[in-house]
Amino acid sequence: MKQTVAIIGAGETGAGWAARFRVMGWDVRLFDPDDMARGLVGAVLQQARRGLPGLSDVALPETGDMVFCQTISEAVDGAVWIQECLPERLELKRKVFQKIQEHCDRRAVIASSTGTFTLAELQGCATRPEQIIAAHAIAPIYLLPLVELAVNDVNSPEVTARAKEVLQGIGMAPVDQQGEERVSVALQNALQTEADRLIAEGMATADDISDVLRYGLGLRWAASGLDASQDAVLVAMLRALKAQDAGAGAVLNRFDATQAEPVLDIKQPLPTVTRTVPLDWTDYNGHMNEVRYLQAFGDATDRFMEIIGCDADYIASGGSYFTVETHIRHLDEVHAGARIRVETQCLLGEGKKMHLFHRMYEGDRLLATGEHMLIHVSLDTRRATVPADHIAARLGQIATAHAALDLPDGAGRAVGEDR
Fold it and tell me: 323-362 as b/e, with b when 16 or more CB fall inside 10 Å?
């Protein structure tokens, strides 16, 4: 049965909490007198729906319902968790806590998002202070798992246990706060103070400090406390940043762009991929995951498309190739650190069709082959269509040259046939 959470205050923080709870299957009731709150919550929820489910390798619960309530009493009625996300004004929070406790279940957990006030201050005028805790999260709340959980001697062990159970149940990592001050806020303030000092003394600029965090310390801190798996984690983070062309990933992309492309001889299979197998491409058997073979061959297809002129500008103009059939043969093991190359032969290139055959090598050792049939489409209609004249001409030129080559071993072979 779905549980209900009440969110009191639907600014950025409240919207983040609402999005995480709802995507995790909770019914959400919100109260905020600001008419602009609906638009903000809707936008944040849309972002959460795109991002949060992708962090899990299993299906999340069905998304809960969401209702904007006209009164606090309506919002908290039946809620088992009440998240207060009001502006940092102590008297306002205390007044609202009193209102909440007039109408909420006595067993409900009331959690404040404060990063400013102590728990004792929040509990000061409460009817049932033992109900109130602090749960301070870091934006974007719908993605980052950290939540600083503050309880004190007024709270019962049952309230603390229930709070941790709820937070862990929505995919968060509650960290106990030993004192009254939120550690993340104190740490952020300390870093800002030191950064301001370095800037004032002329030792660094704001951009310098930002770069130190983005390109080094921030990444190392994110992987801190790990054993020998730290390298794999750092590689995965850097490659994720690379895919987004952000931070240290943008540095890696700029480096890649400086590397010289091999000279093309269209009378021979074309070199389309040359790379080293990264750590995060391996699986539990210690060799390259089968999905990565497809990625390598997909990259080879993308490079072949660039060679014939089907590049980013052409795709932006409304034409591209879609893969309609794929056959991969896994012939030998590939391990992390292996330097692989893919050579591509065009078996057919006429009309709407493009038939490619990729061979993957490490040195002279054949590792795998990939055979792919692609159809040219209009991105406006999403239907098959002939390519532009310059694409057809270049593709035809390569296909004619490759027709003089021997048919690759394995071309046209069905699944299950002898190699």
Answer: eeeebbbeeeebebebebbbbbbbbbbeeebbbbbbbbbb
Residue 353 half-sphere exposure, CB side, CA atoms within 13 Å? 10
Q: Model-level pTM? A: 0.72
Task: Name all domains of the chain by residue range, CATH numbers in brackets.
Answer: 4-182 (3.40.50.720), 205-256 (no CATH), 260-402 (3.10.129.10)
pLDDT digits (tens, 9 = 90+) for 101-145: 999 999 999 999 998 898 999 998 889 999 999 999 988 999 999
Write down the number of H helices and E strands in the chain. 14, 14
Burial of 58 (0-12, 13-18, 19+ CB in 10 A): exposed
Q: What is the pLDDT of residue 98?
A: 95
Q: What is the pLDDT of residues 290-342, one digit of tens each?
A: 999 999 999 999 999 999 999 999 999 999 999 999 999 999 999 988 999 99
Helices 230-243 and 248-258, interaxial angle, to 10°? 70
Name the nearest CA neighbour of 320 among 398, 371, 274, 381.
Answer: 381
| The two structure tokens encoding residue 23 | 């995507």
pLDDT for 227 equals 64
Structure tokens at 384: 């098959």
Phi then psi dihedrals of residue 405, to 5 deg: -80, 160
Backbone angles phi, psi at 367, to 5 degrees: -100, -40
Residue 40: per-residue pLDDT: 94
> By the 8 A CB rule, do 82 and 104 touch?
yes
Q: And the tokens for 278?
A: 């990264």
Query: For the chain, which residues score pLDDT lower than 50?
Result: none
Residue 321, both tokens: 């190739």
Q: Return d(Cα 12, Cα 369) in angstroms, integer.
A: 50
Strands 146-150 and 270-276: unpaired
